Amino acid sequence: AQPIRRADYRPPDWLVPELALDFELGAGETRVTGSLSAVRSGAHDRPLRLDRDGIVPDSVRIDGVEADWSQLDDAIEVTLPGDAHSIEIAVTLHPDRNTQLMGLYASGGLLCTQCEAQGFRRILPFPDRPDVLTRYRVRMTADSTRYPVLLANGDPVGSGDAGDGRHWAEWDDPFPKPSYLFALVAGDLVANTGSFTTMSGREVQLGIWVRESDLAKTDHALSALKTAMAWDEKVYGREYDLDVFNIVAVDDFNFGAMENKGLNIFNSRYILADPDTATDYDYDAVAAVVAHEYFHNWSGNRVTCRDWFQLSLKEGFTVFRDQQFSADQGSPAVKRIEDVRGLRAAQFPEDAGPLAHPVRPDEYLEISNFYTATIYNKGAEVIRMMHTMLGEAAFRAGSDLYFDRHDGTAATVEDFACAMEDASGADLTQFRLWYSQAGTPRVSAQLSHAPGDGRARIALRQLVPPTPGQPDKAPMLLPLRIKLFGSETGKPLGEERLVLLGDTSADIAFDGVAETPVLSINRGFSAPVILDTNRTAADLAFLSAHDDDPFARYEAMQQLMLDTLVTAVTHGRADHDAVIAAVARTLASPDLDKAFVGEAVLLPSESFIGDQLSVVDPDAVFRAREALRRDLATRLGEQWRDAYDGAAANRFEYTPAAKGLRRLRNVALGYLAASGAPDAADLAFAQFEGADNMTDRHGALATLVNGTSDKRIAALDIFYNRYRDNPLVLDKWFSVQALSARDDAVDQVEELAKHRDFTLANPNRARALVGMFSVNQRAFHHPSGRGYRFVADQLLALDKLNPQTAAKLVPPLGRWKRFDDDRAAMMRGELERIVASAGLSKDMLEQAGKSLD
Ligand code: HT7
Ligand code: ZN
To answer: Which cofactor does it need (predicted)?
Structure first.
């Protein structure tokens, strides 16, 4: 297959201003008729090209007359004599055979669609590209009993009886949109309804549609939606534009959710929440994803992308917007910690490996492989840096200008940068490298101080590492928030400075520095870089207690832990005292937010420790981390006990304070178990049985699953039997075992893959077992190679059903260069086996093939 290149972009030859769709819906067979107007764009004599994937038209009529067409592998072509024609195309679909979950498919008795990025071409041959904007009118006819609810984009305009036990409904969307935003849903659904009055006084009807048995779990999503609608008006001046806004939850979904105009379709895990089944993490994720998809109504739908290379235009910006929203709902510091942790877990490794690509890629084979942490999360960091450099007011002026200028059009990343420049007067020329250069910049900051002249200097250097296809890099523009603290007084030495590092190296001076300074740099993670400083363990311990930026305080603690763990791995042992003292001090600080404390005292993950090493030894990393965990657990035994007892909550409440207590309590429980306290398993089991919420029940289960007590099997059985009919909770049962720290994790996972409730047909279940296992560093990298073989076997089987979901699970196997020769050879062996398999999808071929380089 030939790659698609950004440089080859050409505007569409034909536009389609109008499309009327008629669906005769059925799970076994659905008949679609599309009537479109085709209008020649520019002077050319090229045919109308209609993309298709796995469908062949039953008929094509041009201006009412049966016409010929030529069939290509991935399109049909129709030669049109004039400049404007009407085309009618009929197609027959089989939704119940659609295991790829792209196009029109059946899920749990529903019929629903997923069209981003290129699913519409599995419904109707069409110019399936985001720069063709079309006004849609949709008519659906279906069995009244099986599909009493018929939803599509826009506003409902009519419905009625169609005879023979069937009924019909018509929807009209006044906003021209690209085909990837088309959606319909048919099913036996009920709605949690509400309304929202917009800032100009219009009332919008809101509906969260689910199976009747799930209705009680939709209040949180509905309330998050209202909060998000009000927030977007207040913070970005963006008002909703249709009379209705519907969300439907489905069980089988390749991604988190989809922002179809006026009809969002969600993976049910990001809608359903009640205290008995959803953790605090799930509650937060529901609110964040509901907000994210809603925010797309402007950043993505009203202003869409010209082509898929511009994907981060909508995704990076919208992730930034949802991050701001979530920060405003609770603790901004904890939210930033979580976001940076996620970036380091997923994006930094991607940027350092064979699949590294710029935020605006230059080419792809299969676009669905580019819904990556780089496009989403690094893209959000790029927007955040603009926000930091321009300041709140100028950034808002830039976003207003962007929305005004490009409303109703398909725009580019360049358009966004220009709007920011035009509104603020800033010059973002060099900053644009963040869009074109892959790789995580490395920054060295060396502080020196001459007590005599009261001057402190910071020698800054940056290096952007080579990445596939980009051997040489220019220096980037890095906004670094910097502050100095006095090591004796613990007080700030002057105001924070925003230093824009644009050269390979620079010297920064601070005057009037009367006492020995300690460097606080990249505060708030102002630039997504890897930092190397000459700060000592004492400096880091000092900052973990005194820095006035909570994020920097957390970072100092993490760096202290990381330095200790890296020493332990590379030298076989390390002095734990500084970490233990810093954790003790944090636990003993009464003014700190409990959620912050829960995050700050957590050790870095095994994979993040591995990322610091030139060659990862997963067993040595595990041993070093366990040793520090045990030492922290035993030496601070009483403090963990106090933290555990002090964080007990009475009844479940979803408030930042109550969440913080649960977070700290579960972290403390983990340490109590690690200390070998004789009552730890009983404590965990009592928490497990007595919990009135999933956070505490799941926290206790995770502690028991990692241990050796006889309560482990009992808890797993109780959990299974209690939730066997709830697929989302059963996913947790699979994933908590896939993440097990026990020696027998691989055996367990192999057994779980044979469990009657395991299926690859459901993406959530596949990710819960296979995806989670492959980030369990020690287990996945078991020296026998069984972990690699297990994952490769699962991926090959999954590729036959759902290539998109399978391809997303390849990256852990692609990190072979980071491991010793034996492991690297086994990992490569599995990738080679995948690539050599007959009938492999384009998705897998691209991911596994690139991973071998
Ligand atoms: N914009 C949505 C992307 C999406 C998607 C992509 C590929 C395959 C299936 C998919 N479902 C949804 C989600 C979002 O970022 O809001
Ligand atoms: Zn999105």
So the answer is: Zn(2+)
